[in-house]
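$ ./design --mode recover --in tokens.txt
reading tokens...
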């Protein structure tokens, strides 16, 4: 509802157009990366998985745990999170693989290879 209010309250230029410009800038920078590389590898989260119910009272921590996954959505590229590693605390953490637009098949192929070789 806040988004609807902002767009209808005369803030269209201040928020929406500026956000679209930033989104376009990020998309251009990502395309420069894909000119030289086939995939982008990032952690899925800056921390390991939470214990069940651990962060329910801290919404900021929950938001920050997803911060690395936002880029793919902003620029419209395919991405997948793979549970490849286990931390010394016993909890899993993953690797996020991003591919260029319309390269979903390649993304799935490299994901399968990584999952098959995950004992590294």
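writing sequence...
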């Amino acid at each position: 509802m806040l988004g609807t209010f902002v767009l209808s309250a005369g803030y269209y230029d201040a928020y929406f157009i500026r956000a679209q410009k930033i989104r376009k800038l990020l998309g251009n920078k990502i395309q420069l990366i894909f000119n030289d590389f086939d995939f982008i590898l990032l952690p899925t989260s800056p921390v390991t998985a939470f214990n069940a119910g651990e962060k329910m009272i801290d919404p900021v921590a929950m938001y920050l745990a997803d911060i690395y996954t936002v880029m793919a959505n902003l620029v419209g590229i395919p991405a997948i999170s793979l549970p490849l590693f286990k931390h010394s605390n016993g909890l899993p953490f993953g690797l996020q693989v991003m591919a260029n637009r319309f390269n979903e098949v390649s993304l799935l192929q490299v994901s399968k290879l990584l999952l098959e070789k995950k004992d590294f």
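exit 0
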